[in-house]
Amino acid sequence: MTETIATLPSSEAAAYRKPPWSLRPETIWGIILVIPYAVVFAFFVVYPLIYGFYLGSNWASYVKLFNDPIYLRGLRNTLVFLLVAVNLKLLLALVVSGFFVHPQRWIRWVSIIFILPWAVPSIPTILSFRWMLNSEWGMINNILFSVFGIFPGPGWLLDPDLAMGSIITVHIWKYLPFWTLILLAGRLAIPQDLYEAAQMDGASGWQRFRYVTWPGVRNLYITSTLLSTVWSLGDFNSVYLLTGGAPLDRTHILATLGIKYGYQIADVSTGVATVITALPLVVPLIVYLVGQLGRRAPQ
Fold first, then answer.
1. Separation between Cα atoms, residue 121 and residue 117, nearest integer Å
2. DSSP for residue 201
3. Would you tell me how many other CB atoms lie within 10 Å of the CB of residue 47?
4. d(CA 241, CA 123)
């Protein structure tokens, strides 16, 4: 018995053939729903970046920057700020997270108070520090005079070195709770059985940290350090609200110096160029971060 297969004429087969460009309905709806996000991304991310690089493409602005002692001082302040503030902040977060990992109820209450500096907006908190650090009638110098008889008190915001130290201290105080919570979450993810086994083997507290805690939070600590470096590079509030770059523009970092050029001096091209000079610091960190996040955790 033979089978016969009916074939359509070529003209009718072409009518039934699906066009190569046709899409399924769910694909069409997906494209429609993505379009608003693509438009927002183009207007609020891509366009500002392209326009910013256009504004910062004037080589005369870079010549002006590199010959400006205020910029060189701001660049040095930025490096000191990142090296000291970020590393000290993450180190303290690692230590303090070891305190908050204990399950006692009173420690939980302390953790609520500890997180308040990060939860409260920057403007009132940093301006409060600016009031307390005032060399004439600030609270800290009044305490030094009342308790220790020190008069006159240090010029916390008048001496450039003390002012930079105050900026670093306020920055650490403001953002330490956030990174403590991050590292605390990493500590809590470590199986408790490892600590119990190490304790049964007679390991000391330092040995338990070295061979159990640190391997469990090492990658998180490195990632947090790099991410904090990127964020701290753009920390405008800690400097602007506390010193505003004073005294004599000697406490500026690149974030505040770019605003000074762009808005106070009305030299937008130089202000954008100031921010662009920070890219050699940011781009390698971002590339490394993306590479770290793309790696699979070891099994």
1. 8
2. T
3. 11
4. 7
Cα–Cα distance, 63 to 104 (Å, whole number): 59
Q: Each residue of 222-242: b (16+ CB within 10 Å) or e?
A: ebbbbbbbbebbebebbbbbb
Alpha-carbon distance values, 265 to 40, 74, 104, 218, 270 (Å)? 31, 16, 55, 45, 10
Give the Cα separation of 214 and 221 in Å (integer): 9
In 213-253, which ranges are continuous DSSP H helix?
Answer: 214-233, 237-240
The CATH superfamily of 65-294 is MetI-like (1.10.3720.10)
Query: How confident is the prediction along the chain (299 residues), in pLDDT tens digits per residue?
Result: 455 555 545 555 545 455 555 677 778 887 888 888 888 878 777 877 787 778 778 888 898 899 999 999 999 999 999 999 999 999 999 999 999 998 888 888 998 899 999 989 989 999 999 999 998 889 999 999 999 988 888 999 999 999 999 999 999 999 999 999 999 999 999 999 999 899 898 889 899 999 999 999 998 998 899 889 989 998 999 999 999 998 989 999 999 999 899 888 888 889 889 988 988 878 887 787 777 665 654 44
Is 97 strand, coil or helix? Answer: helix
Give the C-alpha separation, 119 to 113, whole Å. Answer: 10
Question: Packing angle between helix 69-81 and helix 160-188, nearest 10 degrees?
Answer: 30
Q: Where in the chain is the domain with CATH 1.10.3720.10?
A: 65-294
Q: HSE, CB side, 13 Å, CA atoms: give it for residue 86.
A: 21
pTM of the model: 0.82
User: Computed from CA positions of residues 290, 291, 295, 298, in that sequence, does the dihedral angle turn out positive or negative?
Assistant: negative
